[in-house]
Structure formats: structure tokens, C-alpha cells
Amino acid sequence: MQKIKTILLSLLCFCASVAIPFAAQAQNDSAFSFFKIVKGNYINFNVDNLDNIYLITAGNQLKKINGNGDSVGVFNDVKRYGNLFSIDVTNPLKILLYYKNFATVVVLDRFLNIRNTINFRKQNIFTVQSIGTSYDNNIWLFDEQDYKLKKIDEDGKLLQETTDFRMLFDSVPSPTQLTDKENFVYLYDAEKGFYIFDYYGAFKNRLPFLNWKNIAVSEKNMYGFADNKLYSYELNSLTLKEYKLPAFIASNAEIKAINGKIYLLKDDGIYIYSVK
Fold first, then answer.
1. pLDDT of 105-164, one tens digit each?
2. Distance CA 44, CA 56 (A)
3. Contacts of 25 (CB under 8 A, 6+ apart)
């Protein structure tokens, strides 16, 4: 009996250290219900926490529509610095367009007008895969030459940085996504999981959720897709749920989950489903 108690205690300590439950709670296909479609020919998209949708058209326009389907703004110069690498819409009032090949960020306002352009190379930052808006409307980035998480302002001035990751971890992550949400900064490496820092750059925790794609972090949940499943991790209760995706969802390459909905890119538009 004492041996069993010891084993159970060890398991509990392990789960507490990585902040995940023993097993994901499986949900069935009936958890998905069709909500609506946004018609059009799009090649990529993103969604913010207010249900605004940012659409990249086949003609390389960036369009923003609100939750009612009304047009809010259009940006016609998406190809200004070549191929767009990512769109950060963490703050709907400040959109970040990142052009990795030119190490350049174009900052747009809520109506998609240019408010600023930042060239990382002018700050001696040359290799960056992931950027994100900070809670105080500055910019987080992971510098893969210095192996540091850094915060810069709109002029590119360095505001703060972490310790060299080689001093913190045995195996240094190469995060492909960075999100600032609810007092924490989440860096995601598909081969190593989530690395979580506080706003002062102190390492707080690690979540070993591997091989997730299309990551999204909202106020209460983090979402990711893997093995034809949607995973939803509740940040308050530390509960991991998994939803087996129906065939009509699993076959789509461009898919995002946020605000309790799934957004699918298809040939004729964006299909939106609610998740129970």
C-alpha cells in the first residue's frame, strides 16, 4: 500500500510541474455545429478576440471584416516587402504584418492604415521566426542569434530581454509562434511544447503539448490541432479536452480555433463552426 501511495504521489507531482491533467477529455463529433460562411476567394486568414476576420485575397489584398460581416478596412500593399510571413492580430487596434525575408514589420491601425514600419536589421537583429504584440502595445520577438526573448518599441528600441536561453534550458527551443495573453508570454516549439514566461521575462512553466499546429491563445483557453483532433486547454482549470474532427474539417489545411469557434478556409470562403 505504501508503494502505491508513493507512485500516486509521484504522478501528482509530475502533473503539477507541467500543469496538465492525466488524460484529455474526449468529445464527440456532435460538438461541432455550422455557424455561417464568409464567401470569397482567400489564400489565408486570421481572427482576433473580437471575432474580426482578416482575409488575404487571391489578389493580395488584406481585408478586415467584423463579426457581422461588415467591411472595416482594406490594405492593398500586402506584397510591399515580398511574401507575408505572418499576421499578428492580438490587439485589434494594432495589426502586425511580418515579412521574415526582409526582417521587417509593418504596423497597421484598426482600419488597416500604415502607422509605422520597423526594420529589425537596423537594431542588429537578423534572425526572427516569431513576433507578437505585448500587453503594453510594444512588440515581443525571439532573437535566434542571441537566443533571447526581447521586447522592442515601435521605433525598434530594445526595452527588455531575457537571459540567454542556453543558460536556462538544456535544449534551446526555436519558437514558431509567440503570444502575449493574460499576464504571460507563450512561446511554442512544435518539437518541445510551450515555454511560458511572465511579463518580466522570468521563465514560469513548460507544457509538453507537441506537434500542435495553428496555435491560438485566448483569455481562457489555448487551442491547437494535431492528429485530426482539436485540443483545447483551459488555463484556469488546467483541463485538456480533445475533439475528434469530422472528415469535412480534418481535410482542410488552413484552420483556426478561437473564441469557441472553428474557422476553415475552403475554395469558396471561410466556413465557421461553433464548438460546444
1. 999 999 999 999 999 999 999 999 999 999 999 999 999 999 999 999 989 999 999 999
2. 5
3. 239, 240, 241, 242
Torsion of CA 76, 82, 85, 91, to 10 degrees: -40
Contacts of 249 (CB under 8 A, 6+ apart): 32, 255, 262, 264, 273
The cell 469557434 sits on which residue? 261
Joined grid coordinates for residue 131? 513576433
Q: Which amino acid is at 106?
A: V
Which distant-in-sequence residues (6+ apart) come within 8 Å of 136 by Cβ?
Answer: none
Grid cell listed for 233: 486547454
Amino acid symbol at 109: D
Q: What is the CATH number of domain 21-275?
A: 2.120.10.30
60-93 per-position pLDDT tens digit = 899 999 988 899 999 999 998 999 999 999 999 9
Cα–Cα distance between 2 and 212 in angstroms, integer? 38
